[in-house]
């Protein structure tokens, strides 16, 4: 991509106890780019996304987004918890299992962040929520609680919730893998539309057709490292690494859509 | 045949229920006796003993002390118990299971043993005979109810919600007040109601550490039974039962509403 780099992760290493889950991972994401991350279960994809927005704290390495270094103030000193919360808002996060707040309606789920974290007035926060939900085709569901929505609808509410905070990047962690097959497409379509509007996105997914048609770049992770990356059609069509070849062989017959 | 069995079972259940509750409810007619000693009313009813309850300064101060002690100890038990349950839920390790078990301990130790221990301890702290002493003791013995009910509420809550809140830039206190607590309000309310009732009718600890300066309602009843047989005792007992029933009905109503809402949502 010719646009400037927006997110720059350098030398990310993460350990859980004695286990090294991420080892020296670098990744640049350009403005408006959609990057897809693939890799076997346990290869560290979720942990990497969480290190990007500091839901997990890496042992070493740095994440920069725009002119902010996560965990550091502009004068270079360590950021406190409150400042880190502010920095974290630059990232939206969409979880595998939606994680909507069960006591709130769809509209309240989306409005809560703008209202309580951004300090927007209630009427304005709710208007923003309705706007985002409408944009995701959920206009008639604004008053429903998560329990009254299908998985696909819940995940679209979760995307609206992330969008309402006006993030610079959205991180998606296997957003369709907890969905019944017939509900996957509506979520992928929403993501495709977002990418089309120029949203910068990092997506962990095994939806290969989505990756081929939407992503500008695909990244393959194995054992806590980025092993290979490239334009999706090249990466999937002519994999060099043996682990990637094996991974694609297992994946393609079942999951391509 | 099956129907006969059903009828028999219902009669039996009714008898057992009557056996359980009638002794408690016998205080209602007794409280209306026109006599000046504990007895069932014969030849008319009288409200004079109820009047005593709400005019006599001794009973009035008993009501006041009981309400004060129960309210404050419940507030303390709620704060500590909710914090403990949430902390254990967030950490979710083996160790926290042990912490939770330890919190239930006051429920299993015989109150009299606990009261003895607390007595020795309070002598050194100079808390004997103080309201603060009783409030603290009741807060501790009320704690298990809160830990149990809040833990039960939390069992249905996904710890990942905290991550969702943080991903939106929420601070830890915001996550607590806007996401976690609203989802476990039913458990907090139930725990508070149980802790309140626990303090409301607790006698042994009050006798041990209340000394001669503090007189809660149960203690006044206890003293009254031993010293004179004033039917006002029956009126007090009836009031205690009515109040407890009212509180339990509120709890039941809240639970109904919750179940209704859960049923509607799915
Ligand atoms: N909180 C944690 N504590 C200990 N180990 C963890 C934790 N989270 C993830 N792991 C381990 O880190 C490895 C990578 O996990 P994850 O990032 O979830 O992989 P992926 O998303 O690619 O399946 C796994 O072996 C997992 O067991
Ligand atoms: Mg994962």
Structural descriptors:
heterodimer, A: 257 residues, alpha/beta, 6-stranded mixed sheet, 4-stranded antiparallel sheet, 25% strand, B: 266 residues, MetI-like fold, 81% helix, binds adenosine-5'-diphosphate, binds magnesium ion
Question: Can you walk me through this structure?
Answer:
Chain A: Keywords: Amino-acid transport, ATP-binding, Cell membrane, Membrane, Nucleotide-binding, Transport. Chain A: InterPro entries: AAA+_ATPase, ABC_ATPase_HisP-typ, ABC_transporter-like_ATP-bd, ABC_transporter-like_CS, MetN_ABC_transporter-like, P-loop_NTPase. Chain A: It is a peripheral membrane protein. Chain A: GO terms for molecular function: ABC-type amino acid transporter activity; ATP binding; ATP hydrolysis activity. Chain A: Residues 7-248 form the ABC transporter domain. The complex is a heterodimer of chains A (257) and B (266). Chain A is α/β, with parallel strands linked by helices and 257 residues long. Chain A is built from nine helices and ten strands. The mean pLDDT of chain A is 95. Chain B has 266 residues and is mostly helical. Chain B has a single domain, classed as Orthogonal Bundle (MetI-like fold). The longest helix of chain B is centred in the first third of the chain and has 35 residues, at 57-91. Chain B is globular, with a radius of gyration of 23 Å. The mean pLDDT of chain B is 88. Classes of the chains: A alpha/beta (257), B mainly alpha (266). The complex binds adenosine-5'-diphosphate and magnesium ion. Magnesium ion (MG) is lined by residues 45-46, 174 of chain A. Residues 16, 21, 39, 41-47 of chain A line the site of adenosine-5'-diphosphate.
